[in-house]
Write a structure and sequence with these properties.
The chain has about 250 residues and is of the alpha+beta class. A five-stranded antiparallel sheet has the order 2-1-5-4-3. The relative contact order is 0.13. The chain contains ten helices and five strands. The chain is about 55% helix and about 15% strand. The radius of gyration is 18 Å and the shape is globular. It has a domain at about 5-170: 2-Layer Sandwich (Beta-Lactamase), CATH 3.30.450. InterPro entries: ANTAR (IPR005561), CheY-like_superfamily (IPR011006), GAF (IPR003018), GAF-like_dom_sf (IPR029016), GAF_ANTAR (IPR012074), WH-like_DNA-bd_sf (IPR036388). GO terms for molecular function: kinase activity; RNA binding. Pfam families: ANTAR, GAF.
Length: about 250
Amino acid sequence: MVNADRLAETFVELADTLVEDFDVVEFLHLLTDRSAELVGVDAAALLLADPHGRLELIATSGDRLRAAEPHRLHTVEGPGVDAFTTGAPVDEPNLRTDGHRRWPRFAPAAGAAGFAAVDAVPMRLRTDVLGALTLFRTSPGPLGATALRTATSLVEVATIGLVQHRSLHHHQVLAEQLQSALTSRVGIEQAKGLVAERLQIDMDGAFAALRGFARAANLKLGDVARAVIEGRISTRQLLSPNPRRGPHRP
């Protein structure tokens, strides 16, 4: 059953895109993480179209998905690509049967990673489709009407937030933000690997440390990742309960 309080809190967070220091990277990770949590699936992945209309994988939840081949195939074929192309939800309750026919490369890779069913919801507002959110499950079967409504509602609120932000700051600003998100994602992945290795923790723990430090210090996630890579924030500082404002030399 969906936690009503948590769902309401998430809607408020996803609608708050008008602040001056709006962080699109954190916003998209929030959408992905909360969707997996509230819909009750094992992993989620978010695709967004870049300024040229090419799909890019922006955010994922769960190490199982990040380490798997579907992570690399996600922008080539699969339910997310289909949802973006058609602008309609896509479901496949059993990847081991019909999934192989629909997505001959994606389905076997997803199955090898332990996933048995997928659904995808387009990030769509009227005729604009910005991307798609894919939901992965380790057990076969339909997602369920309530879970699908929850996923659709979260994606719709997030899409409205992005489009609203774009309308106030012009299309070029959104394009620059999405490009920045792509660039930041590379740095974040590098920083996660560095933190995981040095602190001897898994990738989820490394990401939580980066994200927690960014929130506590009121910094953008991408800026913290870059500072960690450049050595301006030490990996041990990420675990500090009271980080000082701004990157500094360890």
